[in-house]
Amino acid sequence: MARVSLPITLIVGSEEALVRQAVEQARHAARDREGADPDRRTVSAAADDAAAALAEALGPTLFDEPALVTITDADQIDDVLWRILDAAMADPPPGVSLVVTHPGGVKGKKYLTALRGAGAQEVSCAAIKKGRQTEDFLVAEVRRRGRKATPGAIHALYEAIGHDIALLIGAIAQLCSDVEEGPIDEQAVARYFVGVADVQGYRVSDAVWDRRPVDALRDLRWMAESSGRAGVGPSVTATLATGLRALVRVQGLPPNMSEADALRETGIRFDWQLRNARNRAKRWRPDRLAAATVALAELDVAVKGGLRKGDSRDVDQKLHDMESYVVRTASRSEG
Q1: pTM here?
Q2: Are residues 66 and 188 located together in one domain of the fold?
Q3: What mean pLDDT, rounded, does the chain reach?
């Protein structure tokens, strides 16, 4: 009888958006292979209990459902963890697919070499440099979706959004979905993105609900300077509310609901937006979202002038209120 191999995806590089995309593609491949959406289990090789956590993640479940086991921080793999991983490759657990993410560099190189020797499918997620390299990546991303875009459209999109790979990938997905015929041109990009303050607001919103307080504060201050401090408030609270509503909607969904059913149930327009919301929702308890909702309602009142006569606040006070909200909310402890 032929030996059954353990499906392994080796993701090497530090570009977070590409890493998330590669993990998601590995999940889709596991689903196609096993005929069901896999249970996702994540183990950090840097954790003190990494070996025990990996042994548990690789173990069978009550109903033998398929599993996608992701080992992060693979540059921290030690000999103890490797022995467990090596045993799994020698005797693959049924229905298990493995993803290993390594930030790049030479640390842990011998284990990367061993994984490659075991037949791992490698995906490069090296950091993308600003400028030409990013535009080349956008061209390839459009081509990957079976579409074409003019050079002017690629440049206009990069100018409108900036060097935010996750947002650029989402923008490409939206354009490829909405522009039905012909190559995507500058007019299409302008229609969706150029000069739209909401694009900058969504950068702030994404950082808050991803729990990246430093990025949220940086993007808010950049937006205030580039778009005009006086008009920032309503745009930011509106996009924050959009992101919050998506989180609340997906938290109430059954975990095994298909993407198509979830899109219909939530009213979320694009599949990539649904996946982002589902991933973010895992970081939030319902009571924490409730607290964020109350605080956001108070912020919205403050930036629009207050409820009572005399409540009006000046531009600097409003900006301070927004900065306090995004940092406080994005910094809430896990769970």
Answers
A1: 0.57
A2: no
A3: 84
